[in-house]
Structure formats: C-alpha cells, structure tokens
Design goal:
Shape: globular
Number of helices: 5
Order of helices and strands: HHEHHEEH
Distance between the termini: 29 Å
Helix content: 55-70%
Number of strands: 3
Number of domains: 1
CATH class: Mainly Alpha
C-alpha cells in the first residue's frame, strides 16, 4: 500500500494537471522553453495569470527555470514530466 505522504504528493500532481491553463502551459513547454511574455502571447492571458500558474507548477517541480539577463525561461522539469505528459496525450488519443 502507498504511504499517505506519497498519496498526497501524487494527488497534488494530478490536481495540478487537472486545470486547462496549466495543461496548455505544460504542452507549450514540452515543445520548447519559453518566457512569461511568450506564454502570455500564446495563451492570450494576462502576465499575472501566467505567473500564477507557473508558480504553482514550479512549486510541484513540474517545471524549472533559468535566468538569462532580465528574462526567465521555463521548461519542463525533467524527462519524467515530459514522459508523463506524452503518455497522457497518447492515452486520450486512443479513446
């Protein structure tokens, strides 16, 4: 049986992925790393809304960031996250 802390962590992961804007962000970041302004343009939402969603995803270690001058670029945290996202897309394409 899973430990309670692992159940909570897994629940938080799937909860984070249950929000459409975060799914769109994850998809965009699965293609290439982007800054807030890029995501804002792609998603057509405010900078504060993008930043809020990025903060949630970062806190769950689903995305990471790097600074380049004044810009901050975001990408998926690691191969596990990309694989999880791709597996989800593959799963829904078969149903």
């Amino acid at each position: 049986m899973l430990m309670d802390k692992d159940v909570e962590k897994l629940s938080s992961l799937f909860k984070a992925l249950a929000e459409p804007t975060r799914i769109k962000i994850m998809y965009a970041l699965s293609i290439k790393e982007l800054c807030v302004c890029d995501l804002q343009a792609v998603l057509n939402i405010s900078q504060s809304a993008v930043s809020h969603q990025l903060r949630l995803l970062k806190n769950l270690r689903l995305i990471k960031y790097r600074r380049e001058g004044k810009r901050v670029y975001y990408s998926l945290d690691d191969d596990h996250i990309e694989k999880l996202f791709r597996e989800g897309l593959e799963h829904i394409s078969h149903h």
